[in-house]
Amino acid sequence: MYLDNKYSTWYYNIVYRGKERNTTEYTEKHHIIPKSLGGSNESSNLVKLTPREHYICHLLLVKMTTGLSKAKMIHAIVAYSVWTTSNHKRDLIVNSRTIDTLKKARAQYMTEEMNKPENKLRSSLGAKKVWDNSEHRQRQSELRKLLWKNSEYLEKMSKRPKTTKQVMIENKLFPSLREAATSLNLDPSTISKRCSSCHKKYMNWKYV
């Protein structure tokens, strides 16, 4: 989770300096071990830092962690960078290139994670659990009916280019979802769900 590198050294130097310093200037509380990484709200895990030090520490945390911990630290620094309230005293200008780099790193990590078979399966099972809930299905049905009564939505959908996806099922190619449904005597929505599923049983069901 944590790397023993120069960034770790810089990080703890700032933390130790903050712990030993008494100041009357504006400071912000910082969790030495981030809460998302198991840190607590105990005083021993808190240090008062200036806004600039606080920001630098969050940048360093990105460079001194790995894996999921790194992704969490990227998320934290992005949130910190764009956070604002009506009464905060943070006088900090964040470099746009820094934000661009951080957001791209977060997006790349999330893409890599979601492409892993175990995460695809977990996501698929989670979605199935949601759609197995009758209240959720009813709510989505009502929302869909409202959408189709909206003239702007109807106009937008009418202008959308029509595309037909081919379907490959157990090495047999069908020119469309509807033809696959007719041939297999299944509902089109059932075939669509199976093609999007990561379950081993439907690994040979896919759109092409």
Could you characterize what this model shows?
The chain is mainly α and 208 residues long. The chain folds into three domains: 6-114, no CATH class; 118-162, no CATH class; 164-208, no CATH class. It contains nine helices and five strands; from the N terminus they run H-E-E-H-H-H-H-H-H-E-E-H-H-E. The strands form two sheets. Strands 4-3-5 form a three-stranded antiparallel sheet. A two-stranded antiparallel ribbon has the order 1-2. Strand 3 (167-169) and strand 4 (172-174) form a beta hairpin. Helix 1 runs antiparallel to helix 2. The longest helix is centred in the middle third of the chain and has 19 residues, at 96-114. The protein is elongated and about 75 Å long. The mean pLDDT is 82.
Query: Which structural class matches the secondary elements?
Result: mainly alpha
Biggest beta sheet summary: 3 strands, antiparallel
Kindly state the percentage of residues in helix. Answer: 55-70%
Question: What count of domains describes the coordinates?
Answer: 3
Beta-strand content estimate: 5-15%
The unreliable regions are none
Strand order of the largest sheet: 4-3-5
Number of helices: 9
Q: Output mean pLDDT.
A: 82
Distance between the termini: 39 Å
The rounded Rg comes to 25 Å
| Succession of helices and strands | HEEHHHHHHEEHHE
How many DSSP E strands?
5
Query: How would you describe the shape?
Result: elongated
